[in-house]
């Protein structure tokens, strides 16, 4: 496999790497996605009962995967941790009441080692160690992916999502971009279609557009261990 994205939640794949996934697939490269949870602690927006959110978000993700032209897709059922910035009283899935998440499952490391051995990715994209916004699932996923890549032991490029500037309040541990990809207009249109599949998370989509609109057409990454001039291609 050429490029594998490993993230905790449905919709994590599209914001930072949707255009890259589409464009690389169109070039004939093999792309893949591993999503660790069904996002059952997210917002429902009244579109389903709380206990049904995980199933609905899984279906939203499958539709997004089609639009993103992802060749290999795996979805797991590890628990989705409660986000720290949730607004009191908003409609949330049943998982919001639980106090467990990806960080509670270190066995994910062994799972990922096995998947890496099977898929043999040339490059992996995941969250940076500070999770960008501090979400505990983002932070834990970064930790488990890093540990699995080390145990896997074969050469690969490990990329982190890397916004051009740190999110306010999350400056500690920020890693700047080493790679920047400008997304062509026809690919951007498909990326927006993929974002639109995550209907239950429409407020997150709008929040991303308001906070980080430039990242719709400019996807930026940090390559672990790289020191040099800003590059444009991951592979």
Write the layout of secondary structure elements.
Layout: E1 3-7, H1 12-26, E2 31-37, H2 53-67, E3 72-78, H3 108-119, E4 123-126, H4 136-152, E5 157-161, E6 179-182, H5 185-196, H6 202-212, E7 218-223
Parallel strand pairs: 1-2, 1-4, 2-3, 4-5
Antiparallel strand pairs: 5-7, 6-7
Helix pairs in contact: 1-5, 2-5, 3-4
Description:
There is one protein chain. The protein is of the alpha/beta class. The chain is built from 6 helices and 7 strands. The protein has a 7-stranded mixed beta sheet, sandwiched between helices. Strand 1 (3-7), helix 1 (12-26) and strand 2 (31-37) form a beta-alpha-beta unit. The longest helix has 17 residues, at 136-152. 43% of the residues are buried.
**Mean pLDDT across residues:** 96
- The tally of strands reads 7
What is the N-to-C order of secondary-structure elements (H for helix, E for strand)? Answer: EHEHEHEHEEHHE
Poorly predicted tracts of residues: none
- Characterize the biggest β-sheet: 7 strands, mixed
Binned, the helix content reads 25-40%
Percent of residues in beta strands: 15-25%
Please report the distance between the alpha carbons of the first and last residues: 12 Å
Strand order in space, largest sheet: 3-2-1-4-5-7-6
Instruction: Report the principal-axis shape.
Output: globular
Q: Number of helix segments?
A: 6
Structural class: alpha/beta
